[in-house]
Amino acid sequence: MSEQKRIATRDSYGNALKELGHLHPEIVVLDADLADTTRTGIFKKDFPERHFDCGIAEQNMLAAAAGMSTCGLVPFVSSFAMFTAGRAYEQVRNSIAYPRCNVKICATHAGISVGEDGASHQCCEDIALMRTLPGMVVICPADDVEARAAVKAAYEYEGPVYLRFGRLAVPVFHEEEGYTFQIGKGEVLHPGTDLTIIANGLMVKEAVDAAAVLEQKGISTRVINMATVKPLDEELVLAAARETGRIITAEEHSVIGGLGEAVCSLLAEKCPTPVRRVGVQDVFGHSGPALELLKEFGLSAEHLVEEALSFM
Amino acid sequence: MTSEELKKLQITACKVRMGIIESTHAAACGHPGGSLSSADVLTYLYFKEMRVNPQEPNWADRDRFVLSKGHAAPALYAVLAERGYFPVSDLTTLRKVGSYLQGHPCRSVTPGIDMSTGSLGQGVSAAAGMALALKCQKKDSRVYTILGDGEIQEGEVWEALMFASHYHLDNLCVMIDNNNLQIDGWVNEVMSPYPIDEKLKAFGLEVEVIDGHDLNQIEAALGRARQTKGKPYGIVLKTVKGKGVSYMENVGSWHGKAPDDRQFEQAMQELKKSLEVLEK
Ligand SMILES: Cc1ncc(C[n+]2csc(CCOP(=O)(O)OP(=O)(O)O)c2C)c(N)n1
Ligand SMILES: [Mg+2]
User: Fold this and answer.
1) Are A78 and A17 contacting, i.e. CB atoms less than 8 angstroms apart?
2) Which fold does the domain B3-279 belong to in CATH?
3) What is the ipTM of this complex?
4) Which of A58, A301, B27, B177 has its CA 20 to 30 A from that of A267?
5) H or E element, residue B244
6) Which ligand is nearest to the CA of B152?
7) Whole-structure pTM over 0.90, yes or no?
8) CATH code of domain A187-311
9) Does B35 sit in the ligand 1 pocket, CB within 6 Å?
10) Which of B83, B74, B71 is nearest to B27 (CA)?
11) Average pLDDT, whole number, for chain A?
């Protein structure tokens, strides 16, 4: 396999934010004592007067952002996934989603790949929490190209958006040239007729790699990158179900409440199809190097291959 | 305390600092700065102040401790190891797969940890809950908690303090590690919580401000805390982040990064020298 460039999507976020900042003076950034590591510091360098450190006070930060948005500013608000979707959940619900405030919640350090900080920081429930909020757009990009495009799309979209980014550097597999991102549209990365893997975040690349291995074993595997968990690209999921008859979902998130369950709910009602959910299996994480943890928790191409083989 | 006792505690605190450096170096990550600033008070708590039994970590009548600033776990682990809860040699498993020394304290896997923490602002609530429960149960156990001065920006902290004074939790001692640094910079520049002592007073606590590296002052303050009736006690510990390792002192970037091999050698040399001076 060729050496691939690796970039953490939190870096993509910081870079895209800075670019957007130059174009749109109404963009402001709020941070909670994590400017460096969430990469909003990149924006702050160019626009110190538009970057507001809120201190370690996430609940206030989210609701303050809601207030700022009502005056015509477009706040991008950042902390770790645990402390945006988690700590400030009810502020997000009642002060952002319910009043339909134009706030972009940009959460970094999502999932198990946080690594050594351990379970208290490894948020595998954020997608579930955000998905249940009426009107909330939920996006989990897979690589640098998609992440930067998603940040721009979030700005263009009028209304609350939750964007999920990772700490770990992950392979960049999208070609920049001619790439477009559309909220609510999935992307077929590999054609297939026997099985479909629907993935998002860092599991997309794993799914593509798994499909290549499965191909050699005679299993034609479709791979769909479903960066937008909400609104879900229902047509694409239903077509995959009808045409391939088996679905595996893959996400760096609890199998409860995330992409897997979104797909299952849709299929149960509109096209009952056997589904296997690959993800974090209703357990807390623990400390360790990110790459080791991803293997241990079955968030790997190898595990997807195993799952596919036992599914056929 | 006698000068003999003082020296013994200082020696232990120095060993605790070595444990912090060794464990974060072995992990190649973690939080040395805020661990070093808490090392003295933690040493005093576990070696002189608290009623605990390392052989029986869950003894029902023990005093409780909650590290609300959970990222300082390396300091707590080093103190617990020195106190005999688990082998000092295990400190270097910090943050590794399979270790019971998680990146942030986890009560279900580590002996001696009374509460899981890591999400700032929550530990103090749990500590207040423990203090209330112990009062309900008519136990004379006390509860101690340490918060960061950045951590107290969390609104929940003030909810907890309001709760603690409302229920007259005089068995609760709340300590603020006032090193004036958080991740994004100086606490007063990021989001000032000052004046901390006045705020604690306004929330109904009896408060004093001391040098958080002076074990005699720590002893005196904790003694007064025990004598105080009807309200929780607050101690603002004036500290230096990174205390004891010259190049880490008052340098914000040592909040959440481990020393490399060369820096490790230098830190250990400095601490060994301090130890030699104390042991002379
Ligand atoms: C709720 C929450 N928000 C953010 C963080 C990330 N974080 C970990 S340590 C830290 C800074 C803590 O500063 P301070 O309380 O002053 O600790 P100290 O200086 O004693 O290390 C932050 C923001 C967290 N652990 N929990
Ligand atoms: Mg501090």
Assistant:
1) no
2) Rossmann fold (3.40.50)
3) 0.94
4) A301
5) none
6) 1
7) yes
8) 3.40.50.920
9) no
10) B74
11) 97
